[in-house]
Amino acid sequence: MSRRAVVDVTPDAVLKFNKPTEKFLCPVSANTFIEFLEFRIRDVESNRAMFEVKRPSHEIDWNARDLSGSDELRKISYTFPAEFLSYKAIGTTLVFAVCPAGIKNFRMIERHYFKNRLIKSFDFTFGFCIPGSVNTWESVYTMPPLDSDQIQEMIDSPDQTMSDSFYFVDDELIMHNKASYRYST
Amino acid sequence: MGLLTVLKKLKQKEKEIRLLILGLDNAGKTTILKRINGEDISSISPTLGFNIKTLAYNGYKLNIWDVGGQKSIRSYWRNYFEQTDGLVWVVDSADRPDRFADCKLELHGLLTEERLSGASLLIFANKQDLPGALSSEEIAELLDLKTIQTHHWQIVGCSAVTGENLLKGMDWVVTDISKRIYMLD
Ligand SMILES: Nc1nc2c(ncn2[C@@H]2O[C@H](COP(=O)(O)OP(=O)(O)O)[C@@H](O)[C@H]2O)c(=O)[nH]1
Ligand SMILES: [Mg+2]
């Protein structure tokens, strides 16, 4: 089987997607460039972490990375308390290590859907990443104000809020992750 | 519809401003960024790559780039010049006297960079809370700021620890930029 994706997965193509993809659009082994170290979601007003994962160490042995990971490891299912939907601003922080060769152009595109409708799209170009560096990006965004009917609908529809995250190196897809969200009362 | 109107429309889709924070290592760049963003400033390790914040500020979407300042990675700074609307140069006002020569050299070097030629320049004379700190007038003298004619510039004495004058500086740079690039508003 070819390592390449079946469709040509360019940033432009991804920016036209209007529902979650059925499959992952690149193999896990396509990512020889970056390693996630930390991911955090916080409520900005109270500066309280809602979700946090961290690798115990920031040291990466680039010659001994396991690239055989199963698809299950590329999917995450979040459960947030329902108050989450009424927060004014949410900050998401990503910390990642870059391979010893560095990266010329790194870009992330994330598509968020509710019930197969696009509700938000992020497109961020990191550009150049220093060889062997550790980098942090926090994006603080204002939540769209939701009325109580909308909030109820989201609570009543577990896992129908979904996102696809696509990571590109020099316009080539190197990583694709999926998330689904549910809100508990 | 003239070209300017078209340009305005393009940018208006999302009014984005890109700021680049540079300065010698230990000047307080990362602390300033975290402070502005309302985060904990008690545990900050040296930046081994970049540290980016995307946030809303006075109706603009600010992308603030803080790039590590150790000598070994200063040569990578130029990879982050492209599309910079504002340069924020941070100085440790209580630094060892011999470091000011280096500080002046690096700053004046940046001002000759073509890709930074349109950028507004804010100098933060940081660490004003320290007893030995030089005043912003003294820093202006040491860095020979009065010879700068290529850029709109402003120096602001501040402290990332107390938060003093951080917003004053940010307001100046964002206003100066918005006057230039969103002139028609
Ligand atoms: N007293 C004082 N210390 C500061 C101030 N800003 C930063 N520092 C300290 O200076 C050190 C370097 O700060 P950091 O933000 O890592 O500097 P950077 O290398 O420019 O990013 C840290 O120990 C900070 O706590 C300030 O305004 N006042
Ligand atoms: Mg730093």
How would you describe this protein?
The complex is a heterodimer of chains A (185) and B (185). Chain A starts with 10 loop residues before the first helix and ends with a strand. Chain A is built from two helices and nine strands, in the order αβββββββαββ. Chain A has a single domain, classed as Coagulation Factor XIII, Chain A, domain 1 (Distorted Sandwich). The model of chain A has no long low-confidence stretch (mean pLDDT 91). Chain A is mostly beta strands and 185 residues long. Chain B has 185 residues and is α/β, with parallel strands linked by helices. Chain B has a domain at 18-38 and 71-178: Rossmann fold (3-Layer(aba) Sandwich). Chain B has six helices and six strands, in the order αβαββαβαβαβα. Chain B has helices at residues 3-12, 29-36, 71-74, 97-111, 136-142, 166-181, and strands spanning 16-22, 50-57, 60-67, 86-92, 120-126, 153-157. Chain B has a six-stranded mixed β-sheet, with helices on both faces. The longest helix of chain B has 16 residues, at 166-181. Chain B is globular and about 40 Å long. Residues 1-11 of chain B have low confidence and may be disordered. The chains are: A mainly beta (185), B alpha/beta (185). At the A-B interface, β4, β6 and β7 of A face β2 of B. The structure holds guanosine-5'-diphosphate and magnesium ion. Chain B: Mg(2+) binds at residues 30, 47. Chain B: Belongs to the small GTPase superfamily. Arf family. Chain B: Keywords: GTP-binding, Lipoprotein, Magnesium, Metal-binding, Myristate, Nucleotide-binding.
